[in-house]
Amino acid sequence: MRYALLILLFLAPGLARAQAEALENPGAVSAIQERQYRMNHELYLGVGVLPADAFYKGLTGSVSYTYHFSDTFAWQVGRGTYSYNIQTSLRRQLERDFDVAPTASAFEDQVQWMVGSDLVWSPLYGKTAVLNSSVLHFEAFLIGGGTVVKIDRQDGFRPAINLGLGVRMFSGKTLSFRLDVTNNVVFAGASRIINVPVVQLGTAFNFGATE
Amino acid sequence: MTSRSLIAALASAALVVSPARAPAQSGGGSLPMPPPPSGAKATPAAASKPAPGTPAAAPGAKPAQGAPAASGAKPTQGTPATPGAEAGAPATGTEGTPAATAPATDKKPQAAAEAPPPVPQKVDPGVFDQALKDYFDGKPRAAAGPLYAWLQAAPKTDDNYAWAQYFLARSLIDLGLTHAGASYLARIARERSNPNVIPRALDTLKELTDRPHDDVMIDEQVFGALDLGFLPEDTGAYAHYQQGLVDLRVGNERWANTHFAKLSETSAEASRAKFALLVTRLKQVKEPSEELIADFLGLSKDEKLTREARNEAALAVARLRYERLDYPGALEAYNLVKLPELDPGRASLYLEEAWTRYKLGELRASLGILTTLDAPSFRDEFLPDKYLLRALIYRDLCHYLPAKRAAKELTRRFADSLEAVHNRDDLTQDIRLRRAANSHGGTQRASRFVETLDLEGERLGRYAGSFGDRLFTHLTKLYDLSRAEAVRVYDARLAEAVRQEADTLLRAAEQVRLMEYEVGLKLYERVKKGAKLVAPEDEQLLTPDSVAFRFDGEYWNDELKSYRVSIESRCIEETP
Hints:
The complex is a heterodimer.
Chain A: H1 2-24, E1 28-34, E2 41-50, E3 56-68, E4 73-87, H2 89-97, E5 111-130, E6 134-151, E7 157-170, E8 175-187, E9 193-207
Chain B: H1 3-17, H2 45-48, H3 107-114, H4 126-136, H5 140-153, H6 161-174, H7 178-191, H8 198-208, H9 215-220, H10 233-249, H11 253-261, H12 268-284, H13 290-300, H14 307-323, H15 327-334, H16 347-359, H17 363-372, H18 384-396, H19 400-413, H20 415-422, H21 431-438, H22 441-462, H23 464-523, E1 532-533, E2 546-550, E3 563-566, E4 572-573
Antiparallel strand pairs in B: 1-4
Helix pairs in contact in B: 1-12, 1-14, 4-5, 5-6, 5-23, 6-7, 7-8, 10-11, 10-12, 12-13, 13-14, 14-15, 15-16, 16-17, 16-18, 17-18, 18-19, 18-23, 19-23, 21-23, 22-23
């Protein structure tokens, strides 16, 4: 009982102050605006890298189509990525100095292309001031879906789970720029998993958005 | 908003398009002229008007005919030798120097007044050629001094006299001395010694009217008094418009219409003339007709007008509809006002919209707009009504303490100004009233012109070395005289404007006192037994298409029009 009174004693000034503040400045102010940028049918063209594998680096080109159900939820109906792979010096050294065969299984994991489909959730929409002279709108999203990955071997189709996040900068009603960072968890064998991270930057064209 | 304030606001709007008449002659009219050419002794008439038969020089010798850049057709070819050497031109510095001079230039005129007149200098006719070359080589600084020296030595009847004035004016304008340049251009227009130069001079003058300028010297004495027969179409249209405005100002609408009728229907001047006519008519009628409003509405969508003028027309529609108690219509008209991206807009516009929304019962939206008016962009605005409206809204929502505080805020914030009014002090010295008066209408224009003269006066100091003593002394005197006149005009307008602002403040203070009394009674009113809170209104603040940014004291220009306040009513229902 004594403790309860003590706690009440400590809380009382804070509560009184909050009440006085509410009495003096009642109400909450918000800026309520029409959402300036709304996506509908999105066609995306992008370039990127597969940076993680020590034996090769992939330079990718991607194309995708996304249908936006609402401002926060969308379905990336189809996405295709082709990777142009460049061998690293490590691989060259292994082949030259240690006679490692080019068909070694680690070398055959390199991605040739992949296709997939994802769901996109965009909980964040905001704006930022650029040099105090213009306002830039952006949204951030989480992306998750499935991928079929073609790796460099016979019967090289492998399933994968794609998870990642991205940010979109709006340039206009029909044009925006996207940065996606995703990771494809590829099921390469019965008990083997390969991680294929992808970093992509691209341009998104938006069609059919309402004003 | 009273009908008086409406008329005042519209008149102020009209002044954007039609500058007010200055109460007296401009400094431009009494500018110190360059000393008469030495030839003037022999032919005194030549000083006041060009000789009747003074034709332009032979085609080959005129700078207008070859493009000015083509030095092949140099104006001095075939020009008679300047007779400046025969009889010396008196030094400019000795002509009645006014006592009031800028501090930076105090010493020179005094010294000039004390020193004996300098020995007249002979100017080589080639000076004009060289000065033109300098000008076209992009060296106006090098061109100005020699052109002035040549003008002093040459007779006014010289074919190139007007050209020299024109290029001197252009050089000065290029150097940022627009008022000095304008005074030479105005002189060309008044003297009319060379018909080839006049259209160019008028075009340049017309461009200068977009900046703070001497209304009387340019608008009235040049464009308002031009013989319109010989002018090219564009310049003629502007001159007709200005002359129509002059007629309107003196209450002669019929004569004004004669000028306005000559404007092409598709010209911007025709639209501006229509706006001026509508504002004049509005002043004359007690109850504005629907037709008048429709005319303003038409102008608010007229693409030939500047955005500012279109906005003024939209504001006129909104104010007239407000006066007719058509609040939804007024709100619609406020939405016609288009601002550049991220432009904060005008405080008076927000306040008027807030009143309209208040009248429509949109208390929360109105309170949101008042939040906008607290933004740093508007912190210095003179808006006594703001506090009154805020107090009214809080009172209507039964938040009596905030209502009382809002009401008190007015008297607290304007305590100094109210005290100055009660003590019958000089109101022009009150910083708030002065700032309010300077923020619009003729006072604002006069104030900007004084600022421009100050700025150019300072700039002139930088050219002291390259202009030479004679031109520098002449321009210093010109700026001193013009500034003295501009300050006089400004002071006269300020005194009147400050009085009007003080009236506005007193009216608001009076209403606030009543409000305080009313709220004080409400505060201590007993709540009857069984009384319940009024059911909260359904506020649909956020639609699916909207996005909300919670306001935490940081103002973003793109949000200024979008603030909404979520506040509950604390009113209670009286049981029967």
